[in-house]
Amino acid sequence: RGALYRHFPSKVALLEAAVSRVTASVGQGEVEFTNIPLDDPRGTAVLVGRFILANLDMQRDLTHIFERDGERLGSVRDQFRESSDAGFRAASDALRQWALAANLDVDTDAFAVLLIGGLVNFRRSTWTLGGSPIGLGDDRFLEGFATIFSMIVDQHRTR
C-alpha cells in the first residue's frame, strides 16, 4: 500500500488513473472497429464479442469498486460511466457504418445497447455468481450471440 501512494496521492487519484486506462482501451476499440468487415456478420459478432468480454475482464475490479462505492465517488464514477457510454457510442457508430453499407434500416443506438448489454450481463453474472449462466462457456455464448446478430441482420435485409 505504501509504495502505491508514492505514485498516487489518494485512492481517488488511483481510480482516476484506472478510469483513464479504461478510456484509452475503449478508444482503441473504437479505432479497431471503425473498419469492421461488412460481409461476415457472424464472424464480426464473434470478434467484437471477444474484444468486449476481454475489456470487461480488465475492468472487473474497477466495476466492483463502483458497484460498492459509486455514490461516494461521484465525479470518478461519472467518468467511468462516460467511458462506458463512449464504448456504446463507438459500437453504435460502427453498426451505423455497417448498416448503411448493408442498406439496413435499424436504430443502431438501441441495437448497440441491446447487443453489448447481453455481453455485459453474461460477464457480470459470471463474476457475481461465481459461474456463467447455466454453465455456458465463452465460446458457446459467443456462437449464440453471433447467431442472434446474424438473424437480426438477415431479417432487416429482407425488408
What features would you describe in this structure?
This protein has 159 residues and is mostly helical. It has seven helices and no strands. It has helices spanning 4-7, 11-32, 41-58, 60-69, 74-101, 108-129, 138-157. Helix 3 (41-58) packs across helix 6 and helix 3 (41-58) crosses helix 7 (138-157).
Jot down its keywords:
159 residues
Q: Topology, pairings included?
A:
Layout: H1 4-7, H2 11-32, H3 41-58, H4 60-69, H5 74-101, H6 108-129, H7 138-157
**Radius of gyration of CA atoms, rounded to a whole number:** 17 Å
Spans of 5+ residues with little confidence (pLDDT < 50)?
Answer: none
Structural class determined from secondary elements = mainly alpha
The count of β-strands is 0
Helix content: over 70%
Order of helices and strands: HHHHHHH
Mean pLDDT: 84
**Beta fraction of the residues?**
under 5%
- Count of helical segments? 7
What is the first-to-last residue Cα distance?
59 Å
Largest sheet features: none
Overall 3D geometry? globular
